Amino acid sequence: MHIPDYFEFYNKTKINSGKGALENIPYELESMNAVKPLVITDKKSVKNGMVKAFIKSFYNSGVTIGAVYDEVPGYASTALLQNLSKLFRDRGCDSIIAIGGDSAASAAKGLNILVSNKTDSLLMFEDMTKSAPLKPFIFIPSSEARGTETSNEAVIDSRIYKSDDLFPDLVLIDKRMLKWTEKSNTASSAMLALTQAIEACTFSESNPVNDAFAYASIELVYENLSKALKCHCNKKEKSGFMNGVAISGIVYSNAPEGLARAIGFEMEKMTGHPAGLCAGLVLPYSLDYKFRFEKTGVRGELLLPLVGIENYCAIHESERAEKSVELLYLLIDNLEGVIPGRIKDMNIPMYMIKKIAEAAEKRGGGKFGKGAALKILEHAYEGIPFKGGKLK
Amino acid sequence: MNVNKFPEIKPKGKLVKKIYVAVMLWIVGRAIQAAAKVDREVKEEFSALRDDFMVKLWVAPDGPAMIIGKDKSGVVKYMGWNDKGKKVTLDMKIKNIEGAILVFTFQEGTCEAFCNDRFIVSGDLPDALIFVRVLNLIEVYLLPKIITSLAVKRYPKWSQMNPVRKFAGRVLIYIRAFTF
């Protein structure tokens, strides 16, 4: 294993997963000196019965729930934070629990900054060095979670707040909270998790600890995806899958953002399609581009979590990187019917592709190389791999 | 925003589960006291413990609980559930009532429950391990093999515990536990 001259890895998130995980919340709150949490969630989680199961897990605990705010929309906004902040202070809460997906987690992170600093404005906290220590924050993913929730980022009003303080203190994965969701949502979550984990291993400066987390994430997502999609009754696989998704957020937080992820999020902003789906469709093309033109970044070891140790050993060292890319192309082919096979099928006009490419390159601050995003997007748009190097 | 739309929630209790665990703790406590007199292996395990040994096995946040310890003459005794005025040397806390239910309905073995972090132990770790071994032996005596196999790591072989010792011990422990 290559050890770089210098690397950093930070993760303060504890993961509590499996049978009876929910019932541990009161104990975990107590260990963080908290007794009255504010719960933030959305209507879908209430409708699915998740909030009911969550409240039941507090029975016989002696902990009072400050309030369950269940009106989080699909995005976190300043207006929402003002409401939450009022509720938090009014009830004298001392901790935050978010249930659901990205919007609930982002709202919880934003609220945490506000209430911990006793302020009503987030503007001065783009640089979190000015922030007071944050309140305990627990995140419980639903089937809608996509791996950004466990990262050190919060997106509020399209503005990104990034700090290691924003990691959740605890992530609880319980099968009772992984209710039915549309297959496309699960596939989209998987795509974003894989993109985050795989791209973290494609930088020339490797980080051995982050690589270990990334491999675990890739393996958990890739191995459990088909069963998680096949039937809602495969609870164990869904739980394993969600562990992979949660770990991918930690991995992403310890590596620079990759091109596929940047394209995915810019595409989501411009077209409204889920970032996971967009990033996932671009990922194999992005790796293929790196492999064929930049001749760097795609490591052979990537194949290990995708195929397992036996098949990994059976493939020659020089062929492993190419095989990994092939497998990712194959994954998208296999998911056809659940997600579109190429960007063209998502009814995105070609003129937008140029805009998305420009925005993604701008987001990367020039680190991706000029023209790379457009070239990758053109191939992903038509669904033509880079073999031969030219668009047919 | 109307904050009254989002009321404070005071969760209920789980009385039936608490009663079940309390009864199980009482039975196990009495059985340990009896086994310390009847079974040679349990006696030896307890003799390795310090003279003021006292264990409290309980469920957070407010019980039920079971206290077992050695009295002044070194005899192992079940000392009820209240630790007031008692000096507990080993505190074994089950994090929540659901964890206790998993253990006492034998869905999860004691060792497995330890691995799954359902217990919080304060005190000497070797003492805790001895107590877990005693608990395993008690389960072998009290319950039929089909249930005990779920609760213990390895069910004792014939060479380790022959049927005569097992059945005679079972009868004696039951009689002593429920009579005096």
Describe the structure.
The complex is a heterodimer of chains A (392) and B (180). Chain A is an alpha/beta fold. Chain A folds into 2 domains: 14-177, Rossmann fold; 183-382, Dehydroquinate synthase-like - alpha domain (Dehydroquinate synthase-like, alpha domain). Helices cover 49% and strands 9% of the residues of chain A. Chain A has 14 helices and 8 strands. Chain A has helices spanning 25-31, 43-47, 50-56, 78-91, 102-116, 183-200, 208-230, 235-253, 259-271, 275-294, 303-314, 320-334, 350-363, 372-382; strands at residues 14-17, 37-40, 67-69, 95-100, 137-141, 153-156, 159-162, 170-173. Chain A starts with 13 loop residues before the first strand and ends in a 10-residue tail after the last helix. Chain B has one domain (15-179): Nonspecific Lipid-transfer Protein, Chain A (2-Layer Sandwich), CATH 3.30.1050. Chain B is 49% helix and 13% strand. Chain B has 7 helices and 5 strands. Chain B has helices at 15-38, 40-47, 97-104, 110-115, 125-142, 145-151, 163-179; strands spanning 54-59, 65-70, 76-78, 90-94, 119-122. A 5-stranded mixed sheet of chain B has the order 3-2-1-4-5. The model of chain B has no long low-confidence stretch (mean pLDDT 85). The chains are: A alpha/beta (392), B alpha+beta (180).
